[in-house]
């Protein structure tokens, strides 16, 4: 399981974009904690692979080759982080592309195994 935390400006299509991105990565959300305050949103997602969508079993967890497993896991985590950053950086449709906020957008991934 992976815990991903995202903080960014709130926008109407943010959840739609998050769901679409997670599906494209063949991931599913086990739990989501969403907090909004003053036009900002914080999403904490607990995600894992969608086994029904992962026909080729490319998810690098539970393999016997630990060195290769670590490399694959790091690659997967980087891919997830980049995809989530793209969702956060998508403009809200404003002409300037920036709502004027000086707050920065943040994302973090934590690898959690149960």
UniProtKB/TrEMBL annotation:
<feature type="compositionally biased region" description="Low complexity">
    <location>
        <begin position="91"/>
        <end position="101"/>
    </location>
</feature>
<dbReference type="GO" id="GO:0003677">
    <property type="term" value="F:DNA binding"/>
</dbReference>
<keyword id="KW-0238">DNA-binding</keyword>
<protein>
    <submittedName>
        <fullName>Putative ovule protein</fullName>
    </submittedName>
</protein>
<dbReference type="GO" id="GO:0003700">
    <property type="term" value="F:DNA-binding transcription factor activity"/>
</dbReference>
<feature type="region of interest" description="Disordered">
    <location>
        <begin position="87"/>
        <end position="114"/>
    </location>
</feature>
<dbReference type="InterPro" id="IPR045847">
    <property type="entry name" value="AIG1-like"/>
</dbReference>
């Amino acid at each position: 399981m992976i815990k991903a935390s995202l903080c960014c400006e709130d926008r109407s299509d943010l959840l739609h974009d998050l769901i679409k991105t997670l599906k494209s990565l063949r991931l599913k959300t086990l739990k989501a904690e969403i907090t909004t305050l003053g036009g900002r949103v914080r999403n904490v997602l607990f995600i894992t692979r969608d086994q029904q969508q992962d026909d080729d079993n490319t998810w690098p967890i539970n393999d016997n080759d630990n060195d290769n497993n670590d490399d694959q896991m790091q690659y997967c985590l980087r891919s997830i982080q980049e995809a989530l950053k793209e969702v956060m950086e998508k403009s809200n449709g404003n002409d300037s592309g920036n709502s004027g906020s000086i707050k920065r957008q943040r994302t973090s991934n934590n690898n959690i195994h149960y």
